[in-house]
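Q: I have 240 residues here and want to know how they pack in 3D. Can you give me a structure?
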Amino acid sequence: MKCKNCNNIVGETHSYCPYCGQKMGLGRLNFKQLLKDLWISFTNTDQGILHLIKHLAYRPGEVAREYISGRRKSYFNPFNYLLITVAIALYFIAQFEVIALDYSKIESDDKELLQFAFRYFNVFILLMWPIHGFLIWLFFKGRETNYVENLTFTAYLSGQTMLYYILALALFMMLPSLLTTLGTIIGLLISIWYMLAILQFYQTKSFWSILKIILIITLTNMISQGIIFMTFQWYRTWFV
């Protein structure tokens, strides 16, 4: 038989191609196969999204190290994970604006800026991803990881953070009166998780590393807000 993926000749006794790993004897795509593929992508014990989410929750740095060291089949692709969670988060933001956010209590200029940030939320997250990765690489330069490996790590970080944002937005919509309190608590928990992730990834527990992580968080927030504000001003100048 000829593998439909890599065109190598494979013995009839093989269920999977020994060259590329694709299953042999695949027929035309149909709705049943589509549902099966979707189900596997979420529940696959080896590389499904649920498997990844569970491990990123308590060992994010270790997951990223394992992935860049070669265990690519063990975890869902970090870049696909980031794109999926950003897309879902964008939907929840739209619902949050309608259900829980009262724009009448916000000043006109702040309202326009907030609406702009929400509208292009996905663009800003994906734009900040390489900048975020660069900052982590820069502050921990010399620890045997290159920039691309830090991009991989940051994709996992950003993707999981988007998941936490989704859960937070769901809580905000259910309990809009506690928005400020919940936002503070969730923001603090995410920051602690983020710090642990970097400490795991670089296999360090030093006080100096913790200070660098705090500085990374501060710079990332400042740069992100600066980009949003500058693009908003440019947008108002040229398109409004």
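Q: Anything worth noting?
A: Residues 77-239 form one domain. The radius of gyration is 21 Å.
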